[in-house]
Amino acid sequence: MTQLDPNSPAGLPAPRRFLPLLLCLFVASGCAALIYEIVWFQLLQLVIGSSAVSLGVLLGTFMGGMCLGSLAWPRVVSPRRHPLRVYALIELGIGICGIAVLFGVPHLQRLYAAGVGQGLPGILLRGAVCAVCLFPPTLLMGASLPAIARWVETTPQGVSWLGFFYGGNIAGAVFGCLLAGFYLLRVHDIVTATIAAAAINLAVAVAGLSLAGRARYRVPSDLPAQARAECAPGSSPVLVAIALSGLCALGAEVIWTRLLSLMLGATVYTFSLILGGFLMGLGIGSSAGAWLSRRTASPRLALGWCQMLLAAAVAWAAYLFATALPYWRLPSSLSSLWLRFGLDLARCLCASLPATCLWGASFPLALAAAARRGQDPGPLVGRIYAANTAGAILGALGFSIVLIPWTGTQGCQRLLIGLSALAALFALAPVLRPFPARAGDGGHAQKRTPGLRATVSLLASAAIIVLLVWSVPGLPWGVVAHGRQLLAKGSRGRLLYLGEGMNASIAVSELDGTRTFHVSGKVEASSGSQDMRMQRMLGHLPALLHAKPRSVLVVGCGAGVTAGSFVLHPEVERIVICEIEARIPAVAARYFDRENHGVLRDRRTVVVNDDARHYVLTTPDKFDIITSDPIHPWVKGSATLYTEEYFELCKRRLNPGGLVTQWVPLYESTPDTVKSEIATFFEVFPDGTIWANDTILGEGYDLVLLSRASPTPVNLDELQQRLDRPDHSSVVKSLREVGLGSAVSLLATYAGRGPDLQPWLKPAQINRDRNLRLQYLAGMGLNLRHADVIYAEMLRYRKFPKDLFTASPPREQALRTALGQP
Length: 822
Description:
This protein is α/β, with parallel strands linked by helices and 822 residues long. Helix content is 61%, strand content 10%.
């Protein structure tokens, strides 16, 4: 779009000298964009929740803004404006919006919590919140590439540079993803990460304005405006092909993220590695595609064969996920955590790199296939980018919300292979059309059927596609059951159930009479004595310490054992179970009905399918007891149920005299992680207490944190009298099954309280919404076995609390003896 600058050296076009510098700016812009994306997703999940529907709304809004920005910006902004100056102002606007979102979300949260409802109105309100926050900056993000596209001409070389810009933007995104996940958010918080991203935007804007002052720009007027905006004839199939390519790419990212998080452990670091590896392949592929686009005579043909090869690449990934990657044995001498991360990244790349490189190459090839000489590059890039992004939105939402729950990951991977082949047919459609005979064919009017060899190749490819679809293997159930511990535990036992829901993958197995409930690669509950003891402690302990509990909120269903403990208490009138995955309660009712006392059939039970943080934020109801049995804190997203702000929400949802309990695991954890969990709880409930579920050898396993609103001491004699009442006989039976059949044995699980543990907790990091420190601490310890060491350290500070317990002398002495106190 620019003409020769008489002041440029050697008579070269003025832009050519600045293209490498612009490439560097796009790298920096991509880095800032991914930092923002991670921060905004973390911020808004605290408001609208982390369910698949909430994440779908969030992702759809984010990508929808980019799609609209890329499509609308070239039509709104005149090509007469200097592209570098426009690009610089866009970057400055993104930085301003990033700061505005950071400080605006807390105020928006209060309005949202006051007006949210259930069903469609609730989904619409979530979408409105996301739109208010994300549309302004994402519209600008989507406009950046079409804006700068006007700095180049629609020649093969110019279009190739657009591909390099796209690849550079993705390369920066890889760095931004890893920088945010492994440093900015792990060491600092969302404020620091946002300021860092805004500083990058500011630097890019200043550099862009500086370049704009040095480089002249003139719009050629040899073509009318309408002609400059038109794509090459017959480019509609290219738009369809690149839209299908985007659909498959984001659909594959959804599927592969679920599968890899099963195998590697669903930590925040794993998600950063998966996203970084995916973007790395896109960046490599787009650079290769940009190089190829200027050297091939038929970019459309190259685009078509890219899509055909993608079918094979998806099948390759499916084969690795089912037969190789779950059984990748790490060296026994591997002790470096960072080396483990490197090997995890290698595992991600082995599966995803071939396909992501081909998806990355598709974008510059589609640009080259749709471009015509003299065309305004802005609308060209906008259309291709918008089509690709629109397909990506459909892929992300369709696969995560509809297709995986419907057909499972195996069926979804088969669908990806078929859609890739369909994209290839759209791109290669002109090859199958007959065209007139060439001069010298003897004057025959008959049309030559060119590409016979290509047609035969396509038919052979179709046969191969059918074979690939048929041969996609299913995921071994041991991966869903044991995830990263598959090699250690194997697929022992008998599979009773296997299913893939919208938010989680579920399995139920049985071994030696013990049934185990697996969720997304880890054991969530079981009928084993250790797990049963903890699950019933979470229910019976607060129910017995409360004078008369009527309403209960249970965060996390699991096997339903904790919720089922409340069924036995005659005072309880309402039990609300908040569970993010809709399939879990039905599976618990089918396979753990005896252990959970039929809670899911009880008339008092209400099941709410929602993210617990979102439910506690938005419900107007209050409860006598709130008991939380969430997933392990190293699982990405679960740290929101351990923050200071979450405990404050729980505190506001308690009736006068109410109790709150929180599960804390000692296994697969570190001292810093456990200290952070306990210290954060005591920050809100300073007089809270700790109750231990230790092993038969007295070693640590997991804990219950409990806070009582009433400072009244626990009277052992009255508690035992309550247990002796006929209407509590079922409660006693349930407790005896786990070795806690008396008031003394139940209270002997006492392990400490806030004031006594202050010296031990002094260096603890408080887990807050702005840093979610716990998920970064816990993610470092999922391979460790320090439970006994942590428990022994904590017990050093335990004292017999004379002001907490009161009893007759014989019972007090019995409790002291059980606690090992003089």
